[in-house]
Amino acid sequence: MEQTVYEKQSTISLHEKQLKVRKYSKKSIIYLLLVIYALVNAYPIFWMFLNSFKGNVEISQNPFGFPIQWVFENYKIAWETAKLNTYFFNSLIVSFVSVAITVFLGALASYFLARFTFRSGKIMYSFFIFGLLIPIHATLVPLFLLMKNLGLLNTHVGLILPYIAFNLPITIFILVSFMKSFPTEIEESAVMDGCGVFRIFWSIILPMTKPALATVVILNFIHCWNEFSFALVLLNDESLKTLPLGLANFAGQYTTNYGAQMAGLSLAIIPTIIIYLLMEEHLVKGMTAGAVKG
Amino acid sequence: MHILSRNKWPIFIGLAPALVIYLLFAIVPIIISFYYSVMDWDGFTDMKFVGLENFREALTDPIFWSSLKNNLLVVAASVFGQIPIALFFALLLNRKLKGGKIFRTLGFMPVVISTVIISLVWGMMYNSRRGLFNKLLEAVGLENLAQNWLGDPKWAMISVCITMVWQFVGLYLIIFLAALQNIPQEIYEAAEIDGASEMKKTRYITLPMMRNSIIVAVILCISGSLRTFDLIYVMTSGGPGHSTEVLAMYMFDQTFSSTRYGYGSALSLFIFFFSLLLVYVSTLVLKRKET
């Protein structure tokens, strides 16, 4: 359609001109709506970022614009005085360990669930997938009591274990569907060469699963990095708290210092946004995987 | 891979670690909930068996019912807010547009940001003195419309729901865009030859072809918004005066502030069964529509 309009430009009639005008005005309305949508999405974050460089007085006098006087002090307060550095490293440790174990154990389990036929295989797979339906808040009380009995309350291990348990279902879901797509001949030739089961997993299947592994790693990382409820219930010690928990605390303490609060939030959000922008494709794929498959 | 399936040991070794952790920390807690839910226990003194008393108490507890009502409000706001908005912008974005990817990227961004951060930022935006909304109203001369958004029981629930809608529109936008890309182009070409307008094409081709993804999105939306906790905990903690209380929040309060582990466990089980029931009903609806 678009092309025919241009081709006949020499003999353009009044009617076609009107069509073209209508087309352009339609396009600008679409753009206008999309720009509004983008602004609504991005502005709260941008507003926070701008105000993180302002003093208290300026926040109330100049709430929308760029800072007149840049106050970098806010970041120092957030990072050191409010101990965001501690929370930040706690989050890093907890997320890294959880993701590494979840993905390794999940990949190993997926390999057997996807590439082997055994009697309980199907049931086992459904059993793992059932985990997607468990509302985590229904497990907060019993997990708290369980960790208390195991002596793991107020330790990072006590937080990492439920993170692994609740991230395994989506990990296995994504990896199994990916591993199932490989042809069987791959392992057959490896077996002929005398490869063992675990050797096949490590040197053949795992490298082939790389794209799905990337999705799963990023997805799990974001889940752990952002997780709040478990951390709230299972951690009490100031020096062990993760970033979301620390931020909620910090905001409660510094209610009067808006600038420092926003500086803290900006610091916490930067890694997420960088990972998102670099790995958008993988992250989007992971987060919508459950949905698209139904 | 049948060649190797004669030997069961590797399978067992490969599955056991994942299975053990999953069982112990995801499945067992649900099972222990049943045990605690029939007990009266403050965590220190001896447990006392009380039968179904905790469940009976919940059903006669006015705050339980108002939490449930708020939970359903959140579900309604999410389903009728997130999904139509997401559908609308997915339809707008589903064409050749310069910079279309930027809108997608910005649209999905709130979904990846921690709920705690979103709650804190929006909490500041709602602040009655220095918040963005009241400042905006002031700037356009409508300061008489300014509210104490989170402090006023009349507005608190609405404000919380708006934040929730904002947070998750992007998820459904991406789901719908994926579904739109799966519709074969030939159908549209045929309709164009017949002179169908864009409105007609949307109404008679696009929407019917997306029915399944819309239903899936609705299910996802229901089960997701039933679990709301972090946002409410950080923004209002259920207040003012229980006006934004939801089930998970109430359960948390009863367990950890009032240290009533038995009652809290009973409330946990309500959440669990309620979620399963809703997901089950929605999948039934989905299956019926398919046939």
Sum this structure up briefly.
With 294 residues, chain A is mainly α.
Structural class of chain A: mainly alpha
Biggest interface pair, counts: A-B, 93 and 94 residues
Low-confidence stretches of chain B: none
Q: How much helix is in the residues of chain A?
A: over 70%
Mean pLDDT of chain B: 87
CATH homologous superfamily assignment of chain B: MetI-like
**Backbone shape of chain B:** globular
For the record, the CATH class of the largest domain in chain A is Mainly Alpha
Summed up, the domain count of chain A is 2
Individual helix count of chain B = 13
Q: Tell me, what's the shape of chain A? A: flat
Largest sheet of chain B: 2 strands, antiparallel
Encode the helix/strand succession of chain B as letters: HEEHHHHHHHHHHHH
Spatial gap, N to C terminus of chain A: 36 Å
Total beta strands of chain B: 2
Strand residues, percent of chain B: under 5%
Structural overview:
The complex is a heterodimer of chains A (294) and B (291). Chain A is mainly α and 294 residues long. Chain A folds into two domains: 2-51; 74-293, MetI-like (MetI-like fold, Orthogonal Bundle). Helix content of chain A is 77%, strand content 0%. The model of chain A has no long low-confidence stretch (mean pLDDT 86). With 291 residues, chain B is mainly α. Chain B has one domain (63-290): Orthogonal Bundle (MetI-like fold), CATH 1.10.3720.10. In chain B, helix 3 (62-93) packs parallel to helix 7. The longest helix of chain B has 32 residues, at 62-93. The chains are: A mainly alpha (294), B mainly alpha (291). Chains A and B meet through helix 2, helix 5, helix 7, helix 8 and helix 9 of A and helix 1, helix 3, helix 4, helix 5 and helix 6 of B.
